[in-house]
Amino acid sequence: MILRCKQPITAPGVVDVEWAPLIPSLRFSSLYVYSPRGLGWLAEGSRVMRSRVKADDQLWLAQFAGDVYRRSLQDRELAELFARGAALVPVPGSARTGEGPWIALRLAVALSEVGFALPTWTGLQRRYAVIKSATAAAAARPTVQQHYDSFAATLPLTPIPKIVLIDDIVTKGRTLLAAAARLRSLSVHADIRAFALIRTLGRAQHLLHLADPCHGVIRWAGGDARREP
Questions:
Q1: Theoretical Cys-Cys bridge with 162: which of 86, 110, 130, 217, CB 3.0 to 4.6 Å?
Q2: Alpha-carbon gap, residue 92 to 198, rounded angstroms
Q3: Do residues 64 and 32 make contact, with C-beta atoms less than 8 angstroms apart?
Q4: Backbone phi, then psi, for 23, in 5-degree steps?
Q5: What is the mean pLDDT, run by run of 10 residues, along the chain of 229 residues?
């Protein structure tokens, strides 16, 4: 279980509990933004960019990874995230591992090859498929708990002091928070952070830039994940 009880049960049959995940917050960074319903050519361009990433086009992924590396030469926080000693851990997609494209894995490999030269570790896998959030109604999208339950993880023999979760897109952050919690259940002392190539701006009507570096946090709040910003 991802959730742990913070307060005891007060009486038989009466539950007075507050639940929290194994990792209450997760620091994350991203480079690009995506507007699902925004107006203007930049918003439309963000949807084209997302489609190229979701199409698992390796040439485009390599170009995007190159942009991340070049940006890290000027962005201290991004450079620190991908500093020597970290290991890139791709987050599985909604399908069971081995039964669908693993875009995050290709992105992690591309990031390593363009200049970061960091090891990629695939010890986090999806044991069974979950509903794909992009095509599901809001109420039917997988919860943090459901993501956590579908994940399995094994740690390498040599401990990894710093883990950077890699994903293509972050919306609310449920998947990343669940992935971090699953890894935390096996590695208590590892520094776990995350990088998503694109972050969704659900209510944005107009974009000013496609490349808009962000360093924020995903928190456990009110029984769900909350991304800031």
A1: 86
A2: 16
A3: yes
A4: -130, 105
A5: 38 37 92 94 95 92 97 97 96 94 96 96 96 77 94 86 96 96 90 97 86 96 92
**Domain coordinates in residue numbering, the chain:** 21-131+139-228
Strand-pairing partners, residue 198, are 32, 169
How does DSSP assign 172-201, residue by residue?
S-HHHHHHHHHHHTT-SS-EEEEEEEEEE-
Rounded Cα gap, residues 221 and 120, in angstroms: 31
Judge whether 133 and 139 are in contact, CB under 8 Å: no
Could you please state the CATH topology (level 3) that the domain comprising 21-131+139-228 is classified under: Rossmann fold (3.40.50)
CA dist 122 and 155 (Å) reads: 10
From CA 226, how far away is CA 229, in angstroms rounded?
9
Residues shown for the chain? 229
Nearest residue to 1 (alpha-carbon basis) of 15, 17, 20: 20
